[in-house]
Amino acid sequence: MGVGGNLKLFIVTKSSELLIAEILKTRPADRLVMAPPQMSEMFMNIGVQIIPLITKGTSTEERDKAFAQVAMPGVLEDKTFATTQLPVHSVLGIDRLRFWFYPHTDIRHVLDMIKFDELVVSFDLHSPLVWLAVEHIGKATVVKVSSVLDRQHLDFLKWYDKIHTLIVSYDSEKQFFLKQKIKAKKIISAGLEVPERPRDEKLRDVIGMYYDSRYDWKFLVMLQSLDLGDKKLVIGFRDNVEWEKFLTTFPRLNHPKIELQDFVGITRCAEVLLPAYDEQLVRQFPKNVKITYYDIANTEKASLFSGVL
Amino acid sequence: MILVFSGREHHKKKLQPVFNALGEEARWLICNNAINIDPPLLYMNPSGQPYIHSYTAFKPGDDQLVDKIVEQTLKDTKLVPGVAPWWQVYSTREAAELIVSYRNVITQAKAILILHSNNFFAKPLAYLAQEAGIPVFAFQEGVLRDRDQLTMNKQQSAAEYVDKLFVWSNTAKQQYIAAGLKNNQLIVSGPTHLDKYINMSREEALALSGGRQTVLFVPTLQEEYVGNISQDASFLHHFATTLGFDFVFRPHPFELEARTYGDLPQKLTTYNAPENLVLCRNGNTLVIGQHSTIMLEAVALGAVVIEYQEKGLPILQPLAPTVALSATKETFPSMLAGIQDHIINFDTSRIKKFIRDEFGENLGRATEIVVKEIKKHL
Hints:
The complex is a heterodimer. Chain A has twelve helices and twelve strands. Chain A is an alpha/beta fold. In chain A, strands 3-2-1-4-5-6-7 form a seven-stranded parallel beta sheet, sandwiched between helices. Chain B is about 45% helix and about 10% strand. Chain B has helices spanning about 10-20, 40-45, 60-75, 85-105, 120-130, 145-150, 155, 170-180, 195-200, 200-210, 230-240, 255, 265-270, 275-280, 295-300, 330-335, 340-345, 350-360, 365-375, and strands at about 1-5, 25-30, 50-55, 110-115, 135-140, 165, 185-190, 215, 245-250, 285-290, 305-310, 325. In chain B, the strands form two sheets. Chain B has a seven-stranded parallel beta sheet with strand order 3-2-1-4-5-6-7, with helices on both faces. The relative contact order of chain B is 0.11. The chains are: A alpha/beta, B alpha/beta.
């Protein structure tokens, strides 16, 4: 990486209007954009040339061997879970991180062959490649490419210290992360306006409960602690697969006060219980639906993100 | 109370005989499993069997404890290179939730049973149980692969924080000892999940499967399989049905749940067949695949086993020629057409020795041995 110049290297694994705007405001001569080949058409349409990020496969045996070196214990050596002597690698190794280990996505040798002054990447927590690059270079500007208001993004931002600048969409997101004391040195808001959710004046005076099989235990707890009074309970599902899972899990849940509905049905309830805050999901509810969240041990915790937007 | 841990559904299937034999003292212990397609409540709640969901045992203030564990554990921890960080933060929080919730429930337990301790959800449970002085029992889950021991020390770690590990045979016991386990940690019991099928007569199994002559294709996971599973399934289906066999395509349970092959398994399966092990027992089924536990189980249950590799490339730990036939795209049709001739040429004494080596002397009474041993420690 050079010093004092203007050349920005963008590594894009996931895109957003925010990230595209960052790329376009950099002069073509001052930027290099690396992205997977499947994004080439999209970039071509906006007149941006890319260097394709090409990956190759490895055998299971090679992958397992490499993983054992990297994380068993590898970089997790001497780390134990707080309050225990239980090694982190023994829990997270074989049966979790190994499945998501992609040694063939290594980009470090490519970076060593390019001279650039600033690394800008997608804030894509699902990409191993992005973070291999950030770790290798030591610092980066990270641009929001999807919702950042969830536990994983927050845990990551409070832990990871190689983000020089974090670019988010809204001022309220910036304020939230400042308050949370994340490790990024600088937070910039693009100052976008939070899209307004429409109101629905014909909401039903019933309690809705959104069923998500990933949090089926929360559904059990919410159901047991629910005081319906004289209201009806509407249980709603995002699709037929979830509906089917619900019927399989609770075959005996049959009560005249309980009604099963599709997703549209649940968005018409005046009051709704959600098992977790999910920005995309919440955006689909009218503004005047009263939403309560449930999380481990209390509901306040789950509301952490709900006041941001 | 004896807590029997079940993660994904195959845990319950494997441990069900022991759970049943333990009687009223046994309770299933399940936990959250948000990233899998088969969260435990999905199969446990409808079963009507008694269970405790560890996440329903959270107490006020536990959320702060979880946060504290996450923060302190991540502090100074490095990012694992090559892994998407989402998994590292997600899994750290999930492990913290398990630690806090398990601590709330294990106080009631006299013993903990897990399938094995390589499992993400079972490892902290075994650790915490031992910390609390509660005995932990685990089981050999399937065929022991030399490669897994060499690359990941998997056989040793399967017994980490485990007081007694029930293994299938003396051969397996020696492999565990070679991997570093102590002799007194190992009990040769045999595979408990096979008892029911070993004790099932051929007539019973035939009655359950409708007496059809069947080709059962049970490939291992695609990442372990040499070749293309979808293509092989279609090819095998074509020749099996042409020659008058029924055909059943059962991918590895993980891939079946994940719908890796879409509708292909339903499309190629010609009838509503019973579970794999009943088919393996009925004396009327040819079992085709590559290196997997079900192939070994099929041998133990007396089925004819064919290892298939399209081009005859080497596969992992082959069973042929000792106890299995070996076929390629070229040889499979004629082999299937004249299968009786091939079976006659098999040396049954070799098969008997193989079964003894792999599954030990206790086939059919493993559950009884396991329960007797557990009760000694209560």
